[in-house]
Amino acid sequence: MNEILIGLTTVLQPFNLVLCVVGTMVGIVFGALPGFSATMAVAVFIPFSYVLEPSGALLLLSGLYCGAVYGGSIPAILLGIPGTPASAPTAMEGRAMVRKGESGRALAVCTTASSFGGVASSLALLFLAPVLTVIALRVGPPEQMMIAIFGLSVVCLLVEGNAAKGLLVGFFALLLATIGQDPQVGYQRFTFGNLNLYAGVSLVPILIGLFSFPEVLGMLESDGQGYNEVNKAGKLIVDFKDYWNNKFCLVRSTIIGIIIGIIPAAGPDIAAFLSYNQAKKASKHPEEFGKGTVEGIIGSEAANNGVTGGSLIPLLSLGIPGSAPAALFLSAMYIHGLQPGSQLFTTNADTAYSLMVGFVIINIVMFFLGLLFCKVANFILVIPKSVLATLIVILATVGAYATNKSMFDVIQFYIAGVVGYIMVKNDYPLSPVALALLLGSMLETSISQTIVMYPNNILEMFTRPYTIVFTLLVVVSLLWPVVRKQISKKGAKTI
């Protein structure tokens, strides 16, 4: 407790508080711009941390990390364009709520759920790091493989009303994920000699194109009915009932985010989709998902922000980053002479605890800054549709280029946009593409590593307890739609 008080005293120093606020504000802006991820925000500001004290540097980077993960949800709701891949499930529900004139409610729910998930994961980081680190130590390639399969099983539920088309889209997206270098033998596959494809297709430009173009062309196609008449800016009101009625979803999603956060190679993107899927499974009204439901936004946002604190648990305890931004945190720590592990909590206890306490304060600050930012951003919906469509295309193009500073990414962005528009017009779902591209590489790499671990009998991986747990989750996920239909039929007969 004494170390926590020391950390709190350090964070509450005026200069450190300013760093928390500035980092969070800049992070929100980074996340809200299509193509500018949390990883990019942290990477850009690492050089600025050189001149700061270790505590101040880590607090600045923490604000950037948390703010950027949350910020991607703002354009996802207002424009249907996820600022980061983790906001893709939020876009599905938020955009539908905007069309019902509930943009303010959607933004308020998103901000509150994000802050709740962030604060809870920060408290887990502060009080449960040693316990939760045990999970990180026992998660290897077999567990990662089953997590990826579990994530892909989400497709069955996300496209429940259109399963054939959803599975077809997911299958072709998985094929796209195989483009590039083989993770085991290093051969180039399906690149056709194009050097730009050696590292595979670019996830962020493709997702931006898939989700932005259908929205932009939908604005321009609206005939007689103005875009602004369909998309009304609702009042930004925080209604406690929205959270109390969905309290179990809020807590469950946060726990999923924390657990996914401590697993290396996973991250907020996977957590958001998995939690969204679980929210739909547990919902009393699953038919409302995709049509604008508060429950879907809570499920996505509480989880992807729950990852932030969770990803630092194995980092601080073992030096194992749970996400890409956490890996950049590791480099920043080395720059300032900090060594993860037991020594960090003894020799550098003041810095370690200021970081963990700072995470709690940053997520509280993010709630108020987020509401302020959303209040201003909500006015986007009153901009004339022709101007807004032009701005979206320009920002999305810049975001696609900024990902890797490559014009080839811009080409991928426009191709994905045209394909996305055709898919929407022909009633093909977009979410399986995002999910398959996110998980494809992780699945292939973990399968290769698992085969190397168990060359004689791959079934030996089921001697690992966590592998069994995730396998059971896969089975439940695949069978649940069938079970729920049977329950519904029996309920209908009873009535």
UniProtKB/TrEMBL annotation:
Chain segments annotated as transmembrane: 15-46, 58-81, 116-137, 149-175, 195-213, 312-335, 355-374, 381-401, 407-424, 433-454, 466-483
Protein name: Tripartite tricarboxylate transporter permease
InterPro entries tied to this protein: DUF112_TM
UniProt KW keywords: Membrane, Transmembrane, Transmembrane helix
Domain DUF112: 17-433
Top-level taxon: Bacteria
